[in-house]
Description:
This protein is of the alpha+beta class. It has three helices and 16 strands.
Amino acid sequence: MQQSTGSRIAVRAAGALLAVAFAAGCSASVGSKEVSKDEVAKQASAALGKQVGREPDDVTCEDDLKAEVGATIRCELTDGGEKQGMTVTAKSVDGDKVKMDFKVDEAKGGGASAEPTDAASKDTGTGTGAGGQSVNRAEVARQGKAALTAQVGKAPDAFSCAEDLPAEVGATIRCQLASEGKQYGVTVTAKSVVNGKVSMDFKVDDAATG
């Protein structure tokens, strides 16, 4: 099932470029007992395209894949200027057919991150952060939109938050982004608070809410 660019935003912002495991069958020469690295790259690109609705810009593999169950090789994919490693594993061998699993490395950090943001005292005085400080919801939304744009290379159509983010490590709020007519929930977490500056992580839900 193809997914839109909005789904790609969700996947990548969740912390990895197409960070999913999936299987695809391809043919290997009986004589060589291996799948050529070019064929592995071709199959990986096609499988990624089916998974997210868009093939990466490029996939290259270091070696041919032996037609042996459990055999692995390393490949690298490039998308939107970003490079990411991928492990290819031979899951089963049936005659000259090799079924492969492709597992893209998880990106470091587990989510899109924004630059530290100054926290401000709430006018209402009802904040749960230290000293009643928080990051204004509009600023959280602005930072989230910017972080996702940097992560994916495409800005969501809209990004909004229902409440301010307390300036307290571990504090979370829920926000919402819109992309290509679909809505996705976003969990925003205060990862660190140093001298009034709040560093945030943004984790986009895997599935659209509408």
